[in-house]
Structures are given as C-alpha cells and as structure tokens.
Amino acid sequence: MRVIYYILQKEFKQIFRNRIMLPIIFVIPFVQTIVFVYAATLELKNADISIMDYDKSSLSKRLISDFEASPFFEVSKIVPNNNAVSDLLLKDKAKAVILIPQGFEKDVLSLDGAAIQININAIDGQSAGLINVYIQQIVNSLAIKYLSSDINVQINTIPANAEIRSRFWYNPGLNFKYYILPGILVILVTMMGTFLTALNLVREKEMGTIEQINVTPIKKWQFITGKLLPFWIIGIIVMGFGLLIGRLLYNMPFEGSISLFFLATAIYLILAIGLGLLVSDYANTQQQVMFLLFFFFLVFVLMSGIFTSEESMPDWAQAVNRINPIYYFMKIIRAILLKGAELKNILTEMISMTVYSILVMVFAVWKYRKTH
Amino acid sequence: MKRFRGFLIKEFIHIFRDVRTMMILFLIPIAQILIFGYVIKNEIHDANVAVLDLSKDNITKEISGRIDAAPDFVVSDYLNNYSDIKEYFSSGKGAEVIVFEPNFAENFYGQDNARVQLILDASDPNLSNLINNYTSAIIQTYIADQTMSNSPNAIITTEPRMWFNEGLKSSYMFVPGTMTLILMLITAMMTSISIVREKEIGTMEILLVSPLKPLQIILGKVTPYILLSIINAISIILLGNLIFHVPIIGSTILLLGVSILFIIMALMLGVFISSVTKTQQIAMFISMFALMLPTILLSGFIFPIENMPKVLQWLSYIVPAKYYLIAIKNIMLKGVGVAFIWKEILVLMGMTFFFLILSVKKFKLYI
Amino acid sequence: MNNNNNKIIEVRNLVKRFGNFVANDNLSFDVYKGEIFGFLGANGAGKTTAIKILSGLSYPSSGKIMVAGYDVYKQRNKIKRSIGYMSQKFSLYEDLTVRENIHFYAGIYGLPFKQIQNRTNELIEELGIQEMANKMIADLPLGWRQKLAFSVAIFHKPKIVFLDEPTSGVDPITRRQFWDMIYRSAEKGITVFVTTHYMDEAEYCDRVSIMVDGKIEALDTPTKLKENFGVNLIEDVFIKLARK
C-alpha cells in the first residue's frame, strides 16, 4: 500500500512539473471547446443570395422585401442578366440566385400559377436543402397572405383541417450548443484518460526508466495502480471543470443527478484509461501510440453520436457501436444532462459500460509484463 | 549531392520500417471516408416514435397507420397518458411522441380544429427538426388527401435547380474535406515528430555538424513525406470517385498541383513546429490539437464559415486548410481553372514561404 | 578475496534465443559472495542479455540459474528484493530532484520512512552533494548522475548489484571515483556484477569472464588470464580470443 503512495507522489510531481505540457493539456482543449461550440452550428444565417427581378411589379418587389426581411438571407439585387447566374455561382458570389420571371404578378393574379426559378449552389448539400426549404417557406407565406387578404378570390372552403402543434422538449430553442457540449466534454475526458495514460507509459518505456522499475520487487498491480490513478483523478476533475464552464458560459442544462453523472464518469474513465494501458502494452514508441490512438479515436468519435444522430446510422454501424466505448458514455451523459434520466432509465447502458470497463482493464493489466 | 542522397535514403528506410505507423497512415483516410460515406447520415430511417392516442377513432388510427407505414418511422409504442412521455424519452426509446387530442375525428370535420401535438426529444436539434418536418408532412398530406383543397403551393411554384451537385450528395463535401484534413494533419504531424525525435535522441546535432546544409536537412526530412502524402491524396480521390462518385470535372493536373502545394505548405508548417518544440510529446499535441481542430472547424469542412460568429470568420482567414478546401472543391466540382482560384493559390504559396523562411532561420540559430 | 564456500550466483547451461539468433550460448559460471565479477566482451557479445536474465528483466530460454540463493524461474520476487540494478540507459528521473529520486526508489523497496530519511542524509553527506540535493537530475553533470544512480541502486543494501556498462561516456577521473565506490560497497559485502567493454576496467575486478559471440571464452582472475595468454594487458587477451 505504501508503495502505491510513493508512485503516486512521483507521478503527480512529474505531471505538475511538466511546465510545457500542463498548459497544453488543459488550456488548449478548453479553448477549443469554447471555439468549437460557437463554430459548430448547422443553422443557416445570412446566406448570400442574389435576386434578379425581370418583372419589376409591386408583387415582385413585395417578394423581394420579404426575402430581405428574413434573418436567413443577405439579399443583393442584381440587374437581370442571364449569364450572371452561372458567373455568380461559379465565383461563389452567391449561394443562390433567384429569378423572378416577367409576367409574375400577372400570372399570380390570374391564378394561372407563376413560377420562380431558384438556382442553388448545391455543393454543400445540407445547406442547399435548407436554403431551398427556407425560400419555399417565404414564397409560400406570400402566397397564403395573398390568398387570404389581398384580392377577392374564390377559393374552396376548406372542409377539414387539423392543427399541428410542435413542442420541443429539453431543448426548446433547438439549441445546437446543448447538443454538442456534452459531446465535447466526452471527447475531453477521453483524451485525458486514454492519450495521456498511453503516452506516459510508453514514454517510460522509451526512456528506459521502466526497466529500473521492473527490477524492483514492486508488484505489477501496485505499479499500475500508482501509474493510472493520477489520470483517473485528473479526468474526473477535468470533467467537473468542463461542466462548470458549460454551465457558466452557455447555461447548459443539468437536469439529472450530479452523483449519477460523476459515477458514470468514474466508470468511463476506468474504461478509457484501461484502453490507454492496453495500447501502451503493444506500442514501443510514442509515435506509434499517437497514431494508433488517433485512428481509433477518430473512428469511435465519429460513430458515437456526438455529431450526428446514432439513429440515422445503418444497422451494421449501430452493431459496431456495441464495442464503441464513447457511444455508451455519450448516450448516458446526454440522457442525464438534458433529460434528467435516472439510473433505471439508463440501466442497460450503465451495465454494459461497467462490464466493458472491467473486461478491458483486466485484460490490459494481464497483458502488461514486467518480464519479457 | 551524394551526401544528400544518403541522408534521403536513411529517411525513407526509417519510415518504411515502422510498419504499424505506415499501416495506420493509410488506414486513417480510408476509414474516415468510409465512415462519412456510409455511417454518418443526416437522414432518418426506421426512427422509433410513439403514439399517445387520446381519441382512439378511425381517423387517428389511419394517421397512425400512415406514420408507421412511412419508411422513416416505426411506431414502437402506444402510450397511455402524458406521464408516460417522460419515461419514453428518458430511456431513449424514441425521439417523438404524437399526441392526438380527444374528439379528433369530430373536430376534424367540424368548426373547431382537431388538434394533434408533436412532442419531440430535442436533445438532438437537427434530428428532431427533421422528424418534426417529416411527421408534419405526413399529416398534412393526409389532410390534403381528405379535402382536395387548394394549397398555396399551386399559386406560386418554385423550380429549384441544384447546381454542381444535383443529388445533394454529402460526399461532395466530405471527400474534399477529408483530403484536406488528412493531408494537413498527417503531413504536418509526421514531419514535426520525425524531426523532433532526432532532436530528442541527439542525432540532430550530428546532422547539424555534418557538411549538410540546414536547407538540405529540411528537404531530406521532408521529401519522403511528400511522397507518402501524395499517395494518400490520390487514394482518397480514387476512393471518393469510385465509391461515392465524386467527380473531377476540372483539370486533374491542376488538382494534383494544388495538392502538392498544400502538402509542401503543411510540411513546412511541420518543420516549423519541430523547430520550436523540444519533445515529441509536445510536437504531437500541438500538431494534433492546435492544427486538427481549427482545420475541422474553421476550414468550412463540416460547418459553413458564413454561419459562424464574426470573430471566428476572421480567424478562419489564417487557417491554411480553408484555402486549399476552396480550391479543390472548385476544381473538382465546378471544373474551374486557375483563373478562379488564383487568390487561394497565392495565399498558400505565401504561407509556404513564410514557414520555410522561419524554419531555416530557426535551424541556423540552432547551430 | 575469494570465498569459495559462498556462491551467490550459479548459472548452468544458460541459453537465450531470439528467434534463430542465439544471444547466450550455453553459459555456465559461478559468482562468489563479496567479489567484484567482471563480464567483458565486445558490443553485441551477449553481456546485456545475460545481465537482464540474472536481474529478472528477461526470461532465459533454458538453463538453471540461481541468484542470491533463489531460483530465477520460481522465486523472482525474492530475487528482486535482494538485488540492485543500474543500466547504461539512464535510470533516474530527470524531472525529480536528487532527494525525490532517492525517496522514491527507497520507498518502492519498502524501506520505512525514518530509515529513508536517515540514510538519505548520510548518502548526501558521503557524496558531498549538499548543494545539489534539491536540484533536478537534469541539472546535474553526467558524472554525478552515474555516481548517484549507483548509490540509489545499493540504497536498500542488496546482496548483489548488477551494473550494465555503468561508466559509459564518463571522464576518466569520474570513472576512477566510480570504481572507488564499487570497492567500498564490495568491502561492505555487496557482490558486484559488472559488464563493461572498457578492457582496462577488467583490472579492477576480482575475476573476469570474456564473452565472444554468446559464449564465455575465458574466465579467471585478471592476473591468471594475462599469464595464460602471455600478455601484459587484458586488452590483448581479448584480442587474442576475438581473433580465434
């Protein structure tokens, strides 16, 4: 027991003396967290669109001003010129070019059906889809206003109707930040746990100090505990810190129980650190560690549901997620933070994660050899 | 020149001997592309939803039936009261609960409006938005079918033309994006690590006292990685083209040329990083986290820069990846030539020289 | 200085293979308590391999080996308590101070706190490094690091100390001082097993074995070796053996 104390002492001293690494480990990820949250938005804002008005009627002018009023678009009115369309799109001067044809007002008045041409730069398919939808909405609402008020038009009475009301729970503002923030915390904690542990262990290998430890009578489990415990502690602290920042800066919701939250974090860290140990068992240089981890990290993060919904993935991918540690933690954290889930709601995920943690840790320790 | 060749050969041997790292070098881009292509989708299929039917009449049954029949949805649960909703969401069983208010069928054809509530688990805002839209569409289609009334859509129609990417394929974004990310990251990181490792071991000093000039040392270190990165770039383009049908409309030579320019810039950046760091650990961390995240976030790879706050938009101007991404997207997907992307090319060249000069200076100081 | 009744290391038919390459080829020898036993040989002869096996860092492919009275296969832990080790790859932590390094290793060997305190102060006085005691290892000159590493290796008063090329890269004066330390510890009863490729250091040992290509080609006191081969320097013994 005392032996572990000595190792802990040494490890903590070394970690905190590492003047250069320390800020890098703590500051850079946090800065990026903050930047990330502001950058990571798929909502449309101020998209540059150009409108060419061949009709120049009062209706077309009304349509244009509706577009100008929309927060989604930045409108530039262009002198009508057929060649300009491709030029504008090729040169990225506009995301969309709208053509209001001659005779627009006339066709609408006579209920003949007027057509507006929309040209959208669809390289970013998702944005393009959104732009299209928003343009449609603006056009539709003009048409509805028209139908109901402006001119006496005979329309069929609508015999049947239902009113659809949508309510968005947990995140009524559809705030993307609330969605992304837990993901970022997970990434941070995973990095602390896995990367740092693996690098630290392999570093001792590379430098040869591990030999000096291996000749001593210290038992394997004592050494490993002493080595891994600091990172476990640091991981939990970092998580707490990140949570604090999330609350203070973004008002991130915290619906569930704090103890459940930290319990899940503690278990997950065992898993993450165990993986770090496992990787260090197989790698000989820090470079190898970095690449190995980076590869798995990338794959697991992308698939874990941090950025995109796990629901939308094909079935085989969802099956692969069964061995994705980040997936479990992500689900649990989101449920606790945003939905106030209790243990009974996330029981399967918690149990799976716990079992996974134990398996990985046991295997990694078994694999670690003092003697070769 | 012979010295240089000898040095170069040693560098190649170093790299190719480390089989594990090599494998991963080539696996990463492939994995990333495959994941982006097959795994990450922003559509729904077979999403679980629940129905809370407080009316239980033939209309609500029909509507529920339609929802279940739609390929996007599966009605997984029929709830009994409001309090069940919390449980349903907390356990992650589904993303939406459709609530039919009482007397639905009566009100449907009557004076009052029949009411249906769509309650969504908005912890994933994008998904819930999509689900909301799809569900509304299904219900509205039902209404329209029942009434055959005029819809506003008949009065003014829009004819959208999707330029450059008719199918709105996401691969058009992520293949160039992956190329950018991989080239930047791997190139810069590999180079900086390799150089710093020599510093750590101590062999760098030997190189510096040898007749090799600092410029030769840099070039020698950097050349193998240029080759590796080019191979990587080509394999990504091929993958993108063959599996995901991302075209190369413009000149392939121009594409390769710009890519090589970007690679060289990334290498110079890597050299620069190595000249200011002392240990491999730091070099790796800086390459990965000071380079990777800005490249992912601020280059326009996933998140459009125009949607970001002003500050971040300004920041994006110093992210090299942004310029490369613009250039290759234009070449590949719009088929334009140098005339359209000369600005980006110039910026990249400028950055390359900037880092090169800085690095050579640092090396000179080192002696 | 031979104490023929007390063998502290017994090696019979030690073989170590790495794939097809035989690093240690059927080695058999004994080391006696309290002697300074030198293990000479060119680089790559198999010295480091052998010392790693004896110190418990590596498993032999075959052979019967007893270290400090314990069997190398079954009683590893007991061996580890009784030995010390110092390698050519430096073994003290650069980012800890002198005191902290001593403290750490002593604690791992299970020394009680008070004892560590006392012995540490003794050691610092003995070496005369009072001003350096709270400095980082990284800030110490190389010669001091070697001496310190040795002191740490014997801090827990082991029965045997294994030294793998301890004087590599060190100036002649420091080397001389280092060997003084080795003598002093041998006088206190610690057996010293040292590998080196400095042939002149062979003169300082009680007995010397010379390894060539994985085999022991000669084993005796330095004087007898020089007699048998008719030369004046151990170096020449080695050259003759290597040329065979």
Largest sheet of chain B: 4 strands, mixed
Gap between N and C termini of chain B? 22 Å
Number of helices of chain A: 14
The largest beta-sheet of chain A arranges its strands as 2-1-3-4
Number of strands of chain B: 5
What does this structure look like?
With 372 residues, chain A is α/β, with parallel strands linked by helices. Chain A contains 14 helices and five strands. Chain A has helices at residues 2-17, 21-39, 58-69, 82-90, 104-109, 125-150, 176-207, 209-214, 220-250, 258-282, 286-303, 315-320, 325-339, 347-367, and strands at 47-53, 73-78, 96-100, 114-121, 162-169. With 367 residues, chain B is of the alpha/beta class. Chain B contains 14 helices and five strands. In chain B, helix 2 (19-39) packs parallel to helix 9 and helix 13 packs antiparallel against helix 14. The radius of gyration of chain B is 28 Å and the shape is elongated. With 244 residues, chain C is of the alpha/beta class. Chain C contains eight helices and ten strands. In chain C, the strands form two sheets. A six-stranded mixed beta sheet of chain C has the order 6-7-8-3-9-10, with helices on both faces. In chain C, strands 2-1-4-5 form a four-stranded antiparallel beta sheet, covered by helices on one side. Chains in contact: A-B, A-C. Chains A and B meet through helix 2, strand 4, helix 6, strand 5 and helix 7 of A and helix 2, helix 4, helix 5, strand 4 and helix 6 of B.
From the structure above, extract its key features.
heterotrimer; B: 367 residues; abc type-2 transporter like fold; 2 domains; four-stranded mixed β-sheet; 5 strands; elongated; C: alpha/beta; four-stranded antiparallel β-sheet; 36% helix; globular
State the gist of this model.
Chain A has 372 residues and is of the alpha/beta class. Chain A has 14 helices and five strands.
Indicate the topology.
The complex is a heterotrimer of chains A (372), B (367) and C (244).
Chain A lengths: L1 H16 L3 H19 L7 E7 L4 H12 L3 E6 L3 H9 L5 E5 L3 H6 L4 E8 L3 H26 L11 E8 L6 H32 L1 H6 L5 H31 L7 H25 L3 H18 L11 H6 L4 H15 L7 H21 L5
Parallel strand pairs in A: 1-2, 1-3
Antiparallel strand pairs in A: 3-4
Chain B lengths: L1 H16 L1 H21 L7 E7 L4 H12 L3 E7 L3 H8 L5 E5 L3 H5 L5 E8 L3 H23 L8 E8 L7 H31 L1 H7 L4 H31 L7 H25 L3 H19 L11 H6 L4 H15 L3 H29 L1
Parallel strand pairs in B: 1-2, 1-3
Antiparallel strand pairs in B: 3-4
Helix pairs in contact in B: 1-9, 2-7, 2-9, 7-9, 7-10, 7-11, 7-13, 9-10, 10-13, 10-14, 13-14
Chain C lengths: L6 E12 L2 E12 L3 E6 L5 H8 L7 E6 L2 E2 L4 H7 E4 L11 H11 L4 H15 L14 H12 L6 E5 L7 H16 L3 E6 L10 E6 L2 E6 L1 H8 L4 H10 L1
Parallel strand pairs in C: 3-8, 3-9, 6-7, 7-8
Antiparallel strand pairs in C: 1-2, 1-4, 4-5, 9-10
Helix pairs in contact in C: 3-4, 5-6, 7-8
